[in-house]
Amino acid sequence: MRTFIKYYEPSLNPLSGGKGAVSVLSPATVANVVCGFDILGFALNNPTDEFTVSLSDEVGVHIINDDDFNLPTNPEINVSGAALLAMLEECPDVKGFTVISKKVVKPGSGIGSSAASAAGPVVAANILLGNRFSKSDLVRFAMFGEKVASGVKHADNIAPAIYGGVTLIRSIFPLDIISIDAPPLHVTVVHPQIEVRTADARQILKQHVLLKDAIKQWGNIAGLVAGLIQQDYDLIGRSLEDVIIEPVRSILIPGFNEVKQKCKDAGALGGGISGSGPSIFMLSKDAETAKAVEEVMKDVYNRIGLDYQTHLTTINQEGVKQVV
Amino acid sequence: MRTFIKYYEPSLNPLSGGKGAVSVLSPATVANVVCGFDILGFALNNPTDEFTVSLSDEVGVHIINDDDFNLPTNPEINVSGAALLAMLEECPDVKGFTVISKKVVKPGSGIGSSAASAAGPVVAANILLGNRFSKSDLVRFAMFGEKVASGVKHADNIAPAIYGGVTLIRSIFPLDIISIDAPPLHVTVVHPQIEVRTADARQILKQHVLLKDAIKQWGNIAGLVAGLIQQDYDLIGRSLEDVIIEPVRSILIPGFNEVKQKCKDAGALGGGISGSGPSIFMLSKDAETAKAVEEVMKDVYNRIGLDYQTHLTTINQEGVKQVV
């Protein structure tokens, strides 16, 4: 908030209803949840980015970075900017927004950094405007931000960031987002500090898959969804199997197979590549197991000699949330 | 029961605990439920086959047909026989079974005639033997019967026949069957009287599918499972879409596209090919719509000039059930 006052005098703008600026926490997210490639994601309670949005009398979006990531401030090539520009298109009464971006979720980590950048500001802007848009609209705007980041309009990180919890994207055109009830789950994430570009990770996938593999995959996603809603941890664990994407993409992540096997040996229900990597996530039934899983991850990357960061957290049920 | 007395004097056999014979009703089933190819099925309250099983002092399985289908009585090539022979392998204390088969579900109709023949007798035999086997064991035995019928050991008709309701086969080896809670659903089936052999229907499928189609399919199956468990009829309807199997197989069924579109226009949630065809099933929220759907089906096939049979029924929640 400290840099805010310099740029905008919010009380001058009647649209904000006296609210000068809205600050939100926008969560990291895990997408491509094992057998749920391109359709299933969930939000994390940690890490989160912070965005502060205010109305501006200048036309367009004005980006102010308050972190060390040196992201572009030209709104057309900035994820938050592109999302807010898409929103502005449908707000003829609004001239512009100013965003102060304080990112924590590392770009390129595979835990939805760009989705956090896209989702947070549009939710904040919507609060400023009296919640005139539905969550589904906000996902639509935020996808313009994702497109800047990865070249593709996908919603599997954005939907959980905005809705919270576990979300299914049944269809992207037309957009059909379904919240999936889930039992309490502990999430351990390790981010080995290597670069896997989303576009590269997408390019190595084969355009065709064997029908028999596809059948296995849809058996598993059906089992996973049933396990989540019916709170059947065993079934969740059995269903966390990906016979299509993981065998191809995991070769880009040093230590992947060892981490996965040892984490399961330590009691994790299962897990896999987060997004398009390089982060790996594991789900556990309780905090103690999740902590043991973190130790396993550290051991593997300490031995390999690769820098890493871990996050020990739970599923975020609220999505982007206003800081009050 | 009338032909029974001639073949066996049940009270002589101590294993049956005084029960001379057990009669069961074994239901027709719908498998390959739209986007759930090879993994999702459900049981119908109508039509059903009737099987009466008794212990025999002769080694092996003795088949008696009490219907007009002229099915083989050699147990190795008879679906009920092959299933019971598999069961006998694990019953060292049992010499043999006699089965009286009174089939109603037409072989080759696509509503699980062979599964009814496989499931009914093993459930009846298990009751005779004091329920020594689990449902999962019974599915395993019955799959030997399916293999006789279609050359492939599949469980997507057998599982709902034995468990009742809607069942998911998450995995076939190892066998993992999950009962999926579902809201009340009305089912309308039309069986146009043409022959589609399961083996042929399987052969025309491509071994490879586009990844983007597979993603659509697993989005839909995830949506369908969520819709069923969360009792969301709209979501069920939206998810009843098959972009992989139906476009290929429906060309074998005259009138398919017209039936499907007109049934949806008449209010059906959706539906598709039952099993590998030629039957077509439609799901509706209420009995009135299901009846209107039946009229639409009749109209189409009357106009085409193809003989047909319809069934107006609901989902059978119990599976194979003893006649008492």
Automatic annotation (TrEMBL), chains A, B:
Residues 225-302 form the GHMP kinase C-terminal domain. Residues 83-165 form the GHMP kinase N-terminal domain. Pfam families: GHMP_kinases_C, GHMP_kinases_N. It is found in: Cytoplasm. InterPro entries: GHMP_kinase_C_dom, GHMP_kinase_C_sf, GHMP_kinase_N_dom, Homoserine_kinase, Ribosomal_Su5_D2-typ_SF, Ribsml_uS5_D2-typ_fold_subgr. Keywords: Amino-acid biosynthesis, ATP-binding, Cytoplasm, Kinase, Nucleotide-binding, Threonine biosynthesis, Transferase. It catalyses: L-homoserine + ATP = O-phospho-L-homoserine + ADP + H(+). Catalyzes the ATP-dependent phosphorylation of L-homoserine to L-homoserine phosphate. This is Homoserine kinase. It comes from Parasediminibacterium paludis.
